[in-house]
Specification:
The complex is a heterodimer of chains A (about 240) and B (about 120).
Chain A lengths: L2 E5 L3 H13 L3 E6 L2 H11 L3 E5 L8 H11 L3 E6 L4 H9 L4 E3 L4 H9 L16 E6 L2 E6 L3 E7 L2 E6 L3 E5 L2 H7 L5 E5 L2 E4 L3 E7 L2 E6 L5 E4 L4 H5 L5
Chain B lengths: L2 H13 L3 H28 L2 H17 L3 H15 L3 H31 L5
Classes of the chains: A alpha/beta (about 240), B mainly alpha (about 120).
Chain lengths: ~240, ~120
């Protein structure tokens, strides 16, 4: 029995798919309409397969969500689309997953589920809780969480600051925090997340709070609502 | 056998979903299509391309899965109209799609009446 997550914002298609998957003896964890909910469920339930609609509600579409998931999790993603556009096929090939076209049949779903290889055979993206996988252009960088000093958000992008280098990636702080299983990071401001290991000092200047970090000259602002949370951190 | 019944047999054969459950989906689709009507008409007047493409794409996905080929074909034309910024043509196609979906609803109600009452005329 496979564990399946359906990411689909069309209620009817999502529920039809759920019925078909369940009739084949598999478990549907849930149907979620957007990327944000999908990320949380993938993290908490680790499905074997995600059926992914491409046009989703919310800011992130199914293609981008798949890119993100492939960097972190050992799961298969099968696109559900109404037409097999060249871009979709290219994505499916690139991430080693397939696609089904609406209107899908029970036979399509059965074939997809039967072709799913044993998870043990997959070694491409072995999950490692100590390493952050970041997609930059056509490659995936592996950065140890302990090397990240802080992360800054700028619109749809994030700047990841390490001791040696800065990386600009398309992602959100919310997503990063949802993937931080070891609770290494703490959000101190709407636009800043810091690695607790690097906090050196909490400074009060003219009624505003800042954090001074080790190995870094930047002062990170702390918003009022996060001050207590920072004060509770045991600085090492 | 009316067209709706043929569609019902097709969806049941291809998906394994029972006719009874499929009817629930058809009713949901009909209601959501009719409910979306006001917003679609408003968006056509305001020439809101983004909203129209998003909504039409979603409706087309449902229609395709429900094997409502006449509706999904019509929505496909509407999407093309919107991409070409031909909102007048899109409105004409939308009106035509409403007529089609109302006819499907009529046939669905006939089918339900027949099957509920088990009339000999059916």
């Amino acid at each position: 029995m496979k564990k399946v997550l359906i990411v689909e914002d069309d209620f009817i298609s999502g529920n039809m798919l759920k019925e078909m998957v369940e009739s084949l003896g598999h478990k549907v964890i849930d149907i979620v309409p957007n990327a944000e909910k999908a990320l949380i469920l993938v993290k908490n339930t680790e499905p074997d397969l995600v059926f992914m609609d491409i046009n989703l509600s919310g800011e992130m579409n199914g293609l981008y969500l798949t890119e993100l998931l492939s960097g972190y999790y050992n799961i298969y993603v099968v696109f559900v689309t109404i037409h097999a556009a060249p871009k979709t096929i290219a994505y499916a090939k690139r991430f080693g997953s397939g696609y089904i076209i609406k209107p899908f049949t029970l036979s399509d779903i059965e074939t997809t589920l039967n072709q799913l290889p044993d998870k043990k055979l997959m070694v491409q993206y072995e999950k490692n809780k100590d390493v952050m996988h970041i997609k930059v252009d056509n490659s995936i960088l592996f950065i140890n969480y302990i090397d990240i000093i802080f992360i800054e958000s700028q619109a749809h992008y994030m700047i990841i600051h390490t001791k040696d280098k800065e990386y600009t990636v398309r992602n959100s702080l919310k997503n990063i925090l949802s993937l931080d299983e070891n609770d290494i990071f703490v959000q101190v401001h709407r636009s800043f997340v810091v690695n607790q290991e690097y906090i050196e000092e909490l400074i009060n200047e003219n009624y505003s709070y800042y954090i001074k970090l080790k190995h870094c000259d930047v002062k990170i602002p702390v918003s009022n609502k996060n001050i207590q949370k920072v004060k509770n951190i045991k600085i090492k | 056998m009316n067209d709706f019944e043929k569609i019902l047999i097709k969806i049941s054969n291809e998906t394994g979903i029972s006719k009874k459950k499929a009817i629930v989906y058809y009713e949901l689709f009909y209601n959501s299509y009719i409910q979306a009507q006001d917003m679609i008409r408003k968006s056509l007047l305001e020439e809101d391309k983004t909203y129209l493409l998003k909504t039409l794409h979603q409706l087309r996905g449902s229609a395709a899965n429900l094997r409502l080929e006449s509706i999904s074909g019509m929505i496909s034309l509407m999407e093309k109209d919107v991409k070409e910024l031909n909102f007048i043509k899109c409105k004409e196609n939308f009106d035509a799609s409403i007529n089609i979906i109302n006819e499907i609803k009529k046939q669905m109600d006939e089918y339900k009446d027949c099957n509920n009452e088990k009339s000999v005329d059916c």
